[in-house]
Amino acid sequence: MIGYVTLGTNDLQKSAPFYDALAAELGTKRMMEFDTFIAWGDPGGAAGIGLTKPFDGNAASVGNGVMVALQAKDEAQVQRLYDIALANGGTDEGAPGDRGGGFYAGYFRDPDGNKLNAFVMATPES
User: Fold this and answer.
1) How many angstroms separate the CA atoms of 126 and 41, rounded?
2) Which residues of 23-38 are buried (b: 16+ CB within 10 A; e: fewer)?
3) pLDDT tens digit string along 26-81?
4) CATH code of the domain containing 77
5) VOC domain: which residues (predicted)?
């Protein structure tokens, strides 16, 4: 089970509003905050997400093939999260749509270039 994921940032104050807006749409908020680190989520709840300046003091960089997926409640929320991301400094990596097999997702990057998506899986019919 994943407790949380952490992404690097080179400008915490610039990137934090991006995650504040996504968290608000997902019904959560900041749960921890320090000078170099902010975490969003619900203590004891589902996995959270953290944004941090690298501990070693080097510049944050984007991992090729690394992505954080945000679980939405329905396709409309996938669209809202995608729109919120783009309105808060994110960039498009693939507009929301059916990706096959009951997987509906929209892809975007945060202001630091970290890749995320919002998705919903269709419930298999019995």
Assistant:
1) 33
2) bebbebeebeeeeeeb
3) 999 999 999 999 999 998 888 999 999 998 999 999 888 899 999 999 999 999 99
4) 3.10.180.10
5) 1-121
Contact 115, 66 (CB under 8 A): yes
Provide the phi-psi class of 73: left if phi over 0, else alpha when psi is between -120 and 50, else beta. alpha
Burial class for 98, CB neighbours closer than 10 Å (0-12, 13-18, 19+): exposed
The answer as to whether 61 is a domain residue is no
Q: 104: which 2 tokens?
A: 């509906």
pLDDT tens string 74-83: 999 999 999 9
Residue 59 lies in a domain: no
89 domain residue, yes or no: yes
What's the number of domains the chain is made of?
1
